[in-house]
Amino acid sequence: MSTLTLLHGIGGASWSGLALAQPEARLLDWPLPGYGGSKPLPETSFASLSAALAARLDREGIARTDLLGHSIGGMLALDFALRFPERIRGLVLYATTPAFGGKDPTFAEAFLAERLAPLDAGQDMARLAAESILPMFRPGTPAARVREAVAAMAAVPEAAYRATVRCLTTFNRRDDLPQLAMPVLLIAGEADPLAPPKTMARMQAAIPDARLAVLPGCGHLGHLEDPEGFAAAVRGFLRDLPPA
After folding, report:
1. 3-239: CATH homologous superfamily?
2. Cα(96)–Cα(77) distance, rounded to whole angstroms?
3. Could you give the CA distance from residue 207 to residue 181 in angstroms, rounded to a whole number?
């Protein structure tokens, strides 16, 4: 039996109702440490997160998995696939980039200040979620999907959010993309300003075995804006993989 492991973005998991794999496949929705009631790590880094994911797969008895990551979850999926290539059958990198920002260190400092300023000023995660998530959706997205995403981020402990935001700014695997040894699906939202299609097309060009799917009209949350199109892209990719 194949397994599809899901890695959510910085705002928490919002995968419910998505038919991402074949009925006989197993889904493992792994919350980042500190999310979903899980225990936080003493130190949050991509190395420690990849090690924690490997340990979870070991506990579940999963030697090899298909891995799908969204946003920072896509960064972690990329990092994990480079550290543990023997454990990945197929890799889905969704609305993500191979590195954070540019080479100017002041960009990371400005990003952290902007992202954490509301919390530093006393705002809670519920208000931050509403202000951050709502503008990401295209008009016409079902209200239930919007509520799911806002509720997921509102439930993230502030300490976990802060640690994950800081971890995000350290990521750079751009030069390692040619080392990916497994089939890769890249999924971009056509209107995503955070991981635009042109960025993901450059990733595709650098990866030996990669395909790119672009979700028309979608932003950073295409799995909620166009769940059918997103799921169809994932299922088609998994169907083309060699047997587990």
Report:
1. Alpha/Beta hydrolase fold, catalytic domain (3.40.50.1820)
2. 10
3. 9
